[in-house]
Amino acid sequence: MSLLRLDRVHTFYGGVHALKGIDLEVCEGEIVTLIGSNGAGKSTTLKTISGQVKAKSGSIVYEGKNMTNTPPHVTALAGIAHVPEGRRIFPRLTVKENLEMGAFSVNDKKEIAERMERVFHYFPRLKERLQQKGGTMSGGEQQMLAIGRALMMKPKLLMLDEPSMGLAPIIVEQIFHIIRELNDEGMTILLVEQNAFQALQIAHRGYVIQTGEITMSGTGKELLGNEQVREAYLG
Questions:
Q1: Beta-carbon count within 10 A of 74 CB
Q2: Which CATH superfamily does the domain covering 2-79+156-233 fall into?
Q3: Cα–Cα distance measured from residue 69 to residue 58, given in angstroms and rounded to the nearest whole number
Q4: Each residue's pLDDT tens digit, 208-232
């Protein structure tokens, strides 16, 4: 069943035509990955879905409702969590305070505590650093915190923008293991990732984007085996 569908979405940055008629679908329970070179439009796609950037035309339908150009806080309340490129945690807030920001719409303290315990299940290191300021943590820990903050929203769709960027290989393995675990437990995930090989290995389906246009799509296995994809993105 389709959870998210983009139909002929066009987005502009000033005079730059960033997305040129994007068609994309994410079904419930899937990991879908969007791969492409720098500047291809991957991050813009996620920002357009979450409402940070407005679409010029086309439609974004989520759970059967037209969400095109919905403000980001409304998109979040609808169940779409966006973990942006570069993590964007609150550096002067503690780990606990950062996580609480993810549950901004929840007033029940017991519910917040239960959600936090769920985050600690995936990221036990965060529990050990609960009172540490976010800005003093390592890059890997900050990425865990950014994902944990998104999980505090209890989203139906988790959008991850370059979660492996700048991280040591062992931390990347941990992050991808958790992405798989979240999906195994029913979380739907839209993944933008520079590490195309790892992304396609865990994805049910994938899309290739070049200069704002979807040029190819298929299952993760199909794209891994595609010669053009291998030459362009898999080295």
A1: 11
A2: P-loop containing nucleotide triphosphate hydrolases (3.40.50.300)
A3: 10
A4: 999 999 999 999 999 999 999 999 8
